[in-house]
Amino acid sequence: MAAAAAASASAGAMPKLVYLPFRAMAETTRMLFAYGGVRYKDEAIWGMVFQERRQNLEFPWGKTPALEVPGSRTIAQSGALARYAAKRAGAYPDDIVACALSDSIYELGQELCTINPLVNCFVGRQFAAVRGEYFRNHLPPALVQLEIELVRAQGASGGLPFFGGAAPTYGDFNIFHHLDNAMLLEPDILHDKNNLAAWFEKMQEIPHLKEYLDTRPTLNGIGEDPGLEDRNGLRVTQRQPAGRAWL
């Protein structure tokens, strides 16, 4: 009974997301929190602050993103965080088959994750080389498969717009994040994928998600000195010595 009560209290608590100053492996979780109207704290750490806290074993598996939930152990691994956020946001299916289908969409997004370091970390020759490989050989076949699976999902649901049916599930959000990052470099990647392009536009217009997309820090300096800049012009990059900021 005590354990159940503690779990119930943790489920409604305000979590704190801890991550590097990136629009990357925590972004699907942020989008899901926004979609569900879930309040949370968002702490960016890097440099010596990150190293010290990792050496102090604050993060499971020694990595971020991590989610600190009052009354619970710290949670790590981006997929675990996204599923937690999806359950809080009402974007996690009850049906086990629907869950498995959403998982398969989510995992395809994970296979596209090279876009995260490409826009958040890589510079110079490494950036140019990885960009060419990603957009020439890696992303195009994935887009073909996504278009096929979206058509199948919409056919099975009687024309409902999302991979998850009438409403998006966490799989939709993970694909959206990775394509959204890719479009920072190549805005026209969906020009010949009509169904996927319509789905992407539908995702962009989800009210709470749209508000988040319009107000989140801007990712700029890609390929040269990537960083996040807020609406007040404060820019956070890994090169800054401070090592800690609130997003």
What does this structure look like?
This protein is α+β, with helices and mostly antiparallel strands and 247 residues long. 52% of the residues lie in helices and 10% in strands. The protein has ten helices and eight strands. A five-stranded mixed β-sheet has the order 4-3-1-2-8. The protein has a three-stranded antiparallel β-sheet with strand order 5-6-7, with no helix packed on it. Strand 1 (16-19), helix 2 and strand 2 form a beta-alpha-beta unit. Helix 5 (96-111) runs parallel beside helix 8 (170-182). The longest helix has 33 residues, at 124-156.
Q: What characteristic shape results from the CA principal axes?
A: globular
Order of helices and strands: HEHEHEEHHHHHHHEEEE
User: Number of helix segments?
Assistant: 10
Strand content: 5-15%
Mean pLDDT level: 93
Strand order in the largest sheet? 4-3-1-2-8
Give the number of DSSP strands: 8
Main beta sheet, described? 5 strands, mixed
